[in-house]
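Q: Entry one of two.
A:
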Amino acid sequence: PQAAASNGRDMEGARELVELKVIWNKNKYEVTCGLDSTGAELKQRIHSLTGLPPAMQKVMFKGLLPEEKTLREIKVTNGAKIMVVGSTINDVLAVNTPKEAAQQEVKAEENKKEPLCRQKQHRKVLDKGKPDDVMPSVKGVQERLPTVPLSGMYNKSGGKVRLTFKLEQDQLWIGTKERTEKLPMGSIKNVVSEPIEGHEDYHMMAFQLGPTEASYYWVYWVPTQYVDAIKDTVLGKWQYF
């Protein structure tokens, strides 16, 4: 663009010039331009003045300025007002922070203040204490999944639950006294976990079965050594096998 601008200035002595008033974002700019400059060239001049990339400019003079036509062809006269509409990328990013992202940030802040295990819905289950038949945990170690189901855990309603990983069928079976849910691994959107306060060798873990947090299936008292293997298996990383 710099080379183009300097060439433009050298040639302007031999060309018929017009003075334009360019208005963008409540700012006014005086621009001298050759009448035989195209709309695209004018956009480049506006870019050098405002920092607004040509692709993000809407230049208006009696409608949208055609890039391929010259100012002479579209009858731009001395002192003409050229309106420019557009936002720089930084402006767009600043304005368009999605509400959801902002809400997630607020939620994340709240969660930082209050660990999951202190939230009322989880306290109901955790206050029952550690199940008698919970599997032993090994702190500071990552193990591959055992060949037997993970058992002796609670679900959200405080009932006993076991997890069976059917790798040959690519399924996770979530079993309770009443029934067994057979879930394709691919249908589970995410797996989240957090150590249980005061019992950091066990985690509470959720399997996301639908699009929102309301679809989380919570499991409590998961031995810490299996947490990474469960996440990797369900989310499709197979380095453990």
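Q: Entry two of two.
A:
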Amino acid sequence: NITWHDAIVTAEDREKLLNQKGCVIWFTGLSGSGKSTLATAVEQVLHQQQHHTYVLDGDNVRHGLNKNLGFSPEDREENIRRIGEVAKLFADAGTIVMTAFISPYRADRDQARELIAEGRFVEVFVDCPLEVCEERDTKGLYKNAPRWRD
């Protein structure tokens, strides 16, 4: 038996205090495409402009909140579900939150999008060629992957 507890301080109150609207900028793309690099660069610029921001990075979140999840399709889905819920809380707090996750499944990203108020979810596909991601191979994932092409 759980019941939602309405807060006295509203999202609008928090946004007025911060002088900004909470939102989610969702970076998605291949491993090594530059999602985290772009998210942190955007955060730095926004911070310099006096905005309250936070980056939810895939690896960082798997060190804590999602450390019990693996990389099966079910665990990947749960990983993104949890991130969507956390991003929703940050946005409700008036924060501009950037997420950096591979998040390959449209259905999972759509589920996260549905949690956020209309017009406050921006999806950014970091379109980096596979060959460049393979060259970077920041986590050693590509060298261990089966080759599907010549």
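A: Comment on entry two: The helical segments are 11-18, 35-48, 58-63, 73-92, 106-115, 130-136. The longest strand covers residues 23-28.
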